[in-house]
Amino acid sequence: MAESMMGLKRSCRCAEVTKNQIGETVTLMGWVQKARNKGGIIFVDLRDRSGIMQLIFENGDIDEEGFAKAGKLRSEFVIAVTGRVEARTGAVNTNLTTGELEIRCTSLRILSEAETPPFAVEENSKTREEIRLKYRFLDLRRPDLQRNLMVRSRVAQLTRAFMANEGFLEIETPMLIKSTPEGARDYVVPSRVHPGTFYALPQSPQIFKQLLMCSGYDRYIQIVKCFRDEDLRADRQPEFTQIDMELSFVDVDDVIDVNERLLAYLFKEILGVEVQLPIQRMTWQECMDRFGSDKPDLRFGMELKNVSEVVKDCEFAVFKNALVSGGTVRGINAEGQGGMPRKKIDKLVDFVKDYGAKGLAYIAIAEDGSFKSSFAKFMKPEEMDALIAAMDGKPGDLLLFAADKNTVVWAALGALRIELARQMDLLDKNEYKFLWVTEFPLLEWSEEEQRFTAMHHPFTMPMEEDWDKIDTDPGSVRAKAYDIVLNGTEIGGGSVRIHQDDIQEKMFEVLGFTKEQAWERFGFLLNAFKYGVPPHAGLAYGLDRLVMLMVQADSIRDVIAFPKVKDASDLMSEAPAAIDEKQLKELCLKVDIPDEA
Ligand code: ASP
Question: Which residues pair with 43 in a beta bridge?
Fold first, then answer.
């Protein structure tokens, strides 16, 4: 039987009771974590989002009826108790903030009973994630998830406060739009009023925030849902949240300045972590050369070395062929891993195949300086010595090489570097290494489409000093684009935008859009640009990823209240689902699923 709240008022949350309140009477409400009946005395751990408080029910403090009720308490019952705050008589629990206190209860109401939950509500649950997601409302009671969502809330609140203080206005942009220029597939929403037409859900507010700059709002921020219908990878969600911003009359340094102060503020306020400003900057080219990645993890070294020059005359076909066809040979030195068993090295060879590499060549140097190598027989001894020297190979080191097109070598060794760091336990979650990656290429060659595509988006400003190469060598033109990277994860990115007609037109031409196509897609932005447009730039963070790194969660699902799984479905509500005939009719839609689906 569920009792009411009539006449009751909660004093505070469980873990908000302090030692100063010893002797006072308080009223607490929450969920029963566990109840232990020791005959004449009943102990209950009461839980709410603040933590746990121990309750004591003893005949005499509480009337007989109340004591009998306490005897019925089971996990997840929702109760209200009134009682006296006391210093703990039994063992003090140093794991709890309230570990030195307990409440001697004088009254109890059972506000709601609970069935036995399918899994225990406890920290570090071992229950399978599918079960936890199906019962997400229970999962969300667990202290680790509650902490994550509280940090997320603070990030949002502090961001708003900080940005308001910097003169940013919070402005909402529409969710039902035409379509955004980012590369991914749109989620679409059918229009009932205009049968046969569709809205798209925004992949980002990109065009709208640029329009707001044209309208003079100067500094815009929004914490906003974005939607991308991509084939999901482990750490992607079909809907995710951005901290999105745009600023007028600025260049790269202005965007970087306000953002690194924002990051330093958030990390200081929430984690007590001091972020050293200015944050280190590295060009895209340097990142690729040194780390094989445009989001390098700087918590450890193990840098890539280009050894093409060293091996250029050798007879080893793998190296030779790569060099002849314009590729490179690069290596990394996994220090101290020279004793790695052959089987484990073979696993690394398989690992890089996922990144398009054909394999890995290796030299394992023993402690006595002798070495085993997969390719020594094709090399002269002095060539081997030169190669080991170029890699700073010492006794006990493992040298690994990839030879291929640059892009393949970077991807393979970049990923291998992270994999080895994981295996060698070099990744300290308590260390936060930020990096600005700058000067991205403006364009990226798409093998599939046989044309250049915009690496960031078509409105990204080229670097002034490279613009004269746009016809002769478009691939070499760099952009005023930047990413902010934390511990090997891109947490945000943005760019200075093109605000000049002639550059924008040329850009569309290079991207292979006719004037008509460009106007069809982005007409309202191009039109706005005709009526006075300020130079502007912006950036967006992935809030989910940022919070994930802050709370050191393993997955973004752990920082999203109601996440979806890899196939974009929600295991709890069972979305997506069919809609009924009537809805389809109203929308003038017919479903036609091909057989193979
Ligand atoms: N709209 C971009 C994105 O979602 C960010 C930006 O350029 O401001 O990646």
Answer: 36, 56
Quote the ligand 1 centre to 489 CA distance (angstroms): 16
pTM of the model: 0.94
Find the Cα–Cα–Cα–Cα dihedral 557, 560, 561, 566, rounded to 10°.
-40
Residue 26 and residue 82 in contact, taking contact as beta carbons nearer than 8 Å: yes
Q: How far apart are CA 404 and CA 389, in angstroms?
A: 22
Q: Say if residue 180's pLDDT is above 80.
A: no
CA distance 86 to 21: 8
∠ at Cα 234 (120, 360), nearest 5°?
Answer: 125
Q: Which residue from 102, 94, 92 is spatially nearest to 42, judged by alpha carbons?
A: 102
Q: Is 525 close to ligand 1, i.e. is its CB under 6 Å away?
A: no
Q: What confidence tens digit (pLDDT) does each residue in 89-118 have?
A: 777 777 777 889 999 999 999 999 999 999
Beta-carbon contacts of residue 327 (< 8 Å; ≥ 6 apart)? 403, 404, 405, 406, 408, 409
pLDDT band (50, 70, 90) for residue 182 = low
**Section 445-450 average pLDDT:** 87
* Cα 205 to averaged position of ligand 1 atoms, centre (Å): 8
Closest ligand 1 atom number to CA of residue 244:
8
